[in-house]
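[Q] Does anyone have a clean structure-token version of this?
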Amino acid sequence: MVDCRDFVVNQLLTVNPHVSGRGYCAHVVLLRHILLYVHLIGFALLLGGTITQYLTRKYKINQAMLAGAGTQVITGLILAAPFGRAVDPPPGKLITKALLGVIIFAMVFFSRQRENVNKGHFLAIAGLTLLTAAVAVFWR
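[A] Here you go.
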């Protein structure tokens, strides 16, 4: 059992002993799941915004893409912290995802003021977004 007072002062918490044999405060595990949920919403915003702009043939960075890219980077960095998970992912995977996330964010952020973005640049954002999802799913 883990003493949860280290995580939350003056609050009684239950402990989750099913996470890799290590005891974690249930609230830490819940926080991790909420962050993962927000991370997936960021992915949906980024990819959905990209697909929407592509289908209209107006290659412009929209607010959904910018919000999604920012959400992905922020929640991704927080999720990389070693709390509330059963298995630590390989460091190479974390570094690869961090680099891809920062590249995507830079491509979106610095192009947001342009009236039109080059089609290749726009498709690269979509491709790198899908590559990031593939790294998350298939790299074990």
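[Q] Thanks! Anything notable?
[A] The chain is about 60% helix and 5% strand.
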